[in-house]
Amino acid sequence: MTIRFDGDETLFPVALEFNGSACLLRTNSRRVAELATAFFPLRGESREGRVRAHLVLFAEESGRSASASGRFPVFRGRREYVHADYGRYGSIWFDLRAREILGSIASAVIADALVFRSAVLAVIAGMLAPALEIVAIHAGCVVRGGKAVLLAAPSGMGKSTMALTLARRGWELLSDDWTFVGEKGRALRAWGMWSSMKLLPDATRFFPELAAISPGVALNGESAFEVDAWETFHLERAVDADPAAIVHLLRNEEHLGESRCRIAKSNADETYGALVREIEEQPPEMTGEDEARRGIMRRLCRLPSFEARFGGAPAAVAEELDALLAEKICA
User: Fold this and answer.
1) Residue 211 half-sphere exposure toward CB, CA atoms < 13 A
2) Are 177 and 118 in contact (CB under 8 A)?
């Protein structure tokens, strides 16, 4: 099966760029075009005329509310073919080998920018990245002076909280949970999605702005705030930057309440092992792309890497990390 979508004159073309790779979107919706170009902005680095991925997104009229968006989509796949099912809100088909995407999404979803970015465009980025030899790293990312610092950790360890706390100290926020790393010539480039940030209800202790917002229910059933961090906290958004360092965040349960953050250097093998445990395996049909992505990870792991064990409040930990990174990385 290959997705084909030639000859539909009701669609108009939109040029996009995903971390240096040129993509072409065709859609019947000006709203979809506007949101997609903000999510995948042109940076002038993709090769002119070489489109590496084709997308078609139809907007379908719907009066239903998309309030349940946090619980979709549901994925099904076989080999390089994947279907993202949004129930009554639409569906998207992916041919990862051909790098072709075809979908229809209800207007109620498209009307909510945060929902559309988080539930549709972020899904497209996550599914398309391996086929474009871009690695999705389970890490937040902050930027200063064009240098990106990845904050890596398993789920629930505090990546979002730490990324947000550093951003409020003057860093630009690139990503809070997943950072996409690809090759830019002989260098690496980190890219971040403009999607929602999830914070647990106790985050109101650290971020009083959340007091005026009601938490919702996340995909895993947990109660959580889901916000546009850039708008809610008036932050500077970084779209992409040069990776300069990796920090592994580890909550030290034996030292909860301590203000001090224990920071030590990590070697390349330790860093690679920690990151590869979080990478998603690809179908056998995608093994060539998978090996290219592992090569990117090996290069990434040659950057300065640190392990930060902490048990105290985010502000105290961020202060120590800020001082370390200012001296060692961003000087």
Assistant:
1) 5
2) no
Q: Please compute Rg for the chain using Cα positions.
A: 20
| pLDDT of amino acid 280 | 65
Residue 252: its pLDDT value, please? Answer: 74
Tokens of 141: 């990312």
Strand pairing category for 139-144 and 147-152: antiparallel
The DSSP call for residue 40 is: S
E strands of the chain, at which residues? 12-18, 21-27, 51-60, 74-78, 81-85, 90-95, 100-106, 135-137, 139-144, 147-152, 172-175, 179-184, 187-192, 197-199, 216-217, 223-227, 240-251, 262-266, 305-310
Beta carbons within 10 angstroms of residue 85's beta carbon? 13
Give the relative orientation of helices 314-328 and 159-167 as an angle to the nearest 10 degrees: 70
Number of helices followed by number of strands (H, E) in the chain: 9, 19
Phi, then psi, of 299 in degrees rounded to 5: -65, -40
The encoded tokens of residue 2 equal 């290959």
Residue 273 neighbours by CB under 8 Å, 6+ apart = none
> What are the residue ranges spanned by the domains of the chain?
12-132, 135-328
The topology (CATH level 3) of 135-328 is: Rossmann fold (3.40.50)
Residues 168 and 325: their CA atoms lie apart, in Å, by 15
Task: Quote the Cα angle for 200-143-240, to 5°.
Answer: 100
Q: Is 275 helix (H, G, I), strand (E, B) or coil?
A: helix
pTM, two decimals, is 0.88
d(CA 159, CA 152): 7
Q: What is the model's pLDDT at position 1?
A: 43
Q: Structure tokens of 41?
A: 């902005």
